[in-house]
């Protein structure tokens, strides 16, 4: 059993040593009550409604000459019933990389540039709770397997990243499961703008010539009393046959002491023959018990048109109905 | 690689900081030789005969105002052949909670109040080794999924807990997999008494109207030279159709320096038509190499009557025969 | 979140305490580009081409009287796509043991003495990269389930180990999955010689009377400018029917500052009716960015004769073609 307070235990004593290496054990445990209603109705206790429950190990090593080695090994955990999320252990993130003044090169299973733009710039709900923007905006790939990613350094607030995911199909089919994406962004601490693209090919020989593509232009701006969000995305979901759509998001996040109020509205304009349109309104509230622990409450409702099939989910659950309430606690360690 | 001695490294240096947070990595590795005989016979090396091999991460955060956040993420490991126990990773315990002067509220996968009474109050073998009381006493649920548990603070030695596990069945069937349980106990450090109940519904649509229920009254008393145990349980195992039974347990645990001698006798009185009666005698011995490491030896035998099907298992194995010998080593970290 | 520099944080403060216990979190993340060609051709990003990506927890406890308890729990991770290697979580190594002046006794899932000889004494590629000796030399068992292993102390440079793996088959078949092995070796720091044997029975009732056996005599010698390797093995692969063979390996490893050049040649002489012969030439290069992080490049080619089916793999991949190139980065923590 190893127990230590959360702090750099006597760190300064080793600060001068060459090839200093750090290892951090971290995670989130998030459990909440979720009530979904609409066509189907269910009351349940869900792991990760706001942020996926996870356990991670990450580290860096100073290689000298302004170079660093770094790694992340992070597993999702279904704290409600045991087991792993993302269909396998350590399938949240697993990569190794090198960082220098010229940028960061990482290899392994990683987030797509598109998802990072949706999550960090576009969505006031940060892909969590009932208002999760992914309920309507297709993320065409949250993570990429077998991926090489290059992230540039930041020049005058501008930075970008490109990522390529090998398909690794043996039967002469090198298109299946292939992923490619990139983003370019600007931030000055107050304004945050990002343009991102992702294309994911089908995973089987039959669907390898089909792909899901999404392009998003997202921005947020930090006023004194609130942060406002806006995003516009253009999507083509070929693999499931759902077709083309355009999404418009506006949102706001209002901090007030330990309280934060969140709201977003998304309009999906289906552009396939079936014209599957939908609107989502999401409202959220978090109360910080500390910097690391918060309570949360959220409500969202989707108005499906022309038989559109969208459901209100949360970070870990695609949902079953067109309305949902969340109520829970999230602890970060 | 991070290496640190097992101690609070420089803890005092941070004791005064607000929102102090602790993270503990802990576990048990237990491997032993198990020989089972009776109708079927096998010699094998088993992981977790005394205590399930496990790796856990737990922590607390001081939230001020006498409140704490806490979490546990604990996985079982099959150290004999690799893989996870409890059918999935991190399925031993996974929960998050808040603790205050008013009690502790936890959400996630957790032990049932019934099992905790059987394990900690009734059974001198603590659910481990050949003499494991669960060989005969049906625990109708060791752990509960999707569970909310409230544990009261202790008033004059009296405390209790109640737990409810959501069924989470989508097809309008909210009875399947539902669990409910509770316990109330008293301890003064010498006497330890607990009354516990658990009811677990069947997990499928077909069995959701059936349930396994168990009620146990358990006590132990710490004399100067020995701790004596007694328990009485009343069970109705509907799901498998094994039916009603009553179990009586008496046991003793005798510490002697680094040696501990354990014995228990259980009488099961089957009350279904088939009248499946059985008696179990279990003998155990542990030798402490340190506070954290011990050797163990155990023997148990079940006398089945009227074709009763009970087998001698251990903590991690239901067993195949009506007699078993265990011999192994357990290390706690 | 617990973060600490890689060093014994304030260790000396506790050095005097009784039953001192250590816990180490460690691992490797290795990702590389692999191009395989020959009958089948593929370009991919692979986890663990040089050394399997892993996360481990290990510790020791001082029991006094020159005795120690020790354990290892180590999982393989597929960092390219998430999930576990070795077909299950914590299936790299999971064992507990006791160590004294009389040797070390360990119980659990462990490396075979044969594999340790192949890996540590015979193969300049240490079972990694394209030149991996296992491409041709059948290791008849890298790890053993349900295993008891005794490793002797070292007397004048001589030490040995014996291991037995219980089959654990219930249906009266105690031969299936049984493993037995051993090794004896000598080292004076410059010369390293080891003789090892392993026999693994088939895992099913149908194949339990068949076995794969391998005997290897391996040696390496550390000259001032290079380490040279030689090994001879005699194998009988009954279970897959590939039959008898003899393998001869010669190799060299040349360190030069941060650079290391590796080469090996293996001749397999098939001795079954089909006479499945093959030769492998492997070339490798590693560049140390630090003691813990290196880049790697490797190439190997197999010349199969008489329709022999051997492929060029690496540490984590059996390969699909008879030529392969590896290019990657390995970080150890």
Task: Give the secondary structure arrangement, pairings included.
The structure is a homotrimer of 333-residue chains.
Chain A: E1 2-5, E2 21-37, E3 42-47, E4 54-64, E5 67-76, E6 93-100, E7 103-111, H1 113-122, E8 143-151, E9 158-165, E10 179-187, E11 191-201, E12 211-222, E13 227-237, E14 243-256, E15 259-270, E16 278-288, E17 293-304, E18 323-332
Antiparallel strand pairs in A: 2-3, 2-4, 2-18, 4-5, 5-6, 6-7, 7-8, 8-9, 9-10, 10-11, 11-12, 12-13, 13-14, 14-15, 15-16, 16-17, 17-18
Question: Can you characterise this structure?
Answer:
- The structure is a homotrimer of 333-residue chains.
- Helices cover 3% and strands 55% of the residues of chain A.
- The first copy, chain A, has one helix spanning 113-122; strands spanning 2-5, 21-37, 42-47, 54-64, 67-76, 93-100, 103-111, 143-151, 158-165, 179-187, 191-201, 211-222, 227-237, 243-256, 259-270, 278-288, 293-304, 323-332.
- In chain A, strand 14 (243-256) and strand 15 (259-270) form a beta hairpin.
- The two termini of chain A are 17 Å apart.
- Mean pLDDT of chain A is 93; it is low at 4-17.
- The longest helix of chain A has 10 residues, at 113-122.
- With 333 residues, the first copy, chain A, is mainly beta.
- Chain A is globular and about 55 Å long.
- A 16-stranded antiparallel barrel of chain A has the order 2-4-5-6-7-8-9-10-11-12-13-14-15-16-17-18.
- Chain A has one domain (22-332): Porin, CATH 2.40.160.10.
- Chains in contact: A-B, A-C, B-C.
- Chains A and B meet through strand 1, strand 2, strand 3 and strand 18 of A and strand 2, strand 4, strand 5, strand 6 and strand 7 of B.
- Strand 1 of chain A pairs antiparallel with strand 2 of chain B, so a sheet runs across the interface.
């Amino acid at each position: 059993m190893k127990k230590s307070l959360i702090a750099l235990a006597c760190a300064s004593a080793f600060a001068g040593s060459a090839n200093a290496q750090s290892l951090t054990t971290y995670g989130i445990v998030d459990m909440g009550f979720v009530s979904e209603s609409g066509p189907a109705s269910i009351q349940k206790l869900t792991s990760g409604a706001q942020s996926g429950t996870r356990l991670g190990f990450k580290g860096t090593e100073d290689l000298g000459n302004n170079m660093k080695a770094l790694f992340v090994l992070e597993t999702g955990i279904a704290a409600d019933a045991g087991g792993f999320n993302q269909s396998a252990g350590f399938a949240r993130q697993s990569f190794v990389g090198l960082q220098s003044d010229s940028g960061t090169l990482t290899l392994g299973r990683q987030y797509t540039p598109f998802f990072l733009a949706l999550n960090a710039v576009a969505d006031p709900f940060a892909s969590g709770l009932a208002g999760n923007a992914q309920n309507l905006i297709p993320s065409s790939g949250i993570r990429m397997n077998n991926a090489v990613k290059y992230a540039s350094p930041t020049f005058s607030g501008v930075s970008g990243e490109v990522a390529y995911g090998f398909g690794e199909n043996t039967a002469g089919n090198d298109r299946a499961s292939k992923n490619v994406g990139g983003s370019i962004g600007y931030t000055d601490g107050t304004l945050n703008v990002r343009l991102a693209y992702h294309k994911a090919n089908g995973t089987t020989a039959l669907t390898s010539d089909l792909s899901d593509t999404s392009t998003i232009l997202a921005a947020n701006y930090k006023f004194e009393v609130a942060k406002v969000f806006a995003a516009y995305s253009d999507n083509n979901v070929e693999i499931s046959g759902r077709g083309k759509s355009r999404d418009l998001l506006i949102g706001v996040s209002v901090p007030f002491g330990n309280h934060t109020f969140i709201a977003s509205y998304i309009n999906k304009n289906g552009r396939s023959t079936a014209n599957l349109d939908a609107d989502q309104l999401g409202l959220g509230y978090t109360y910080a018990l500390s910097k690391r622990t918060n309570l949360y409450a959220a409500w969202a409702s989707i108005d499906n048109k022309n038989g559109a099939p969208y459901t209100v989910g949360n970070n870990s659950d695609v949902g079953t109905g067109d309305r949902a309430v969340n109520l829970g606690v999230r602890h970060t360690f």
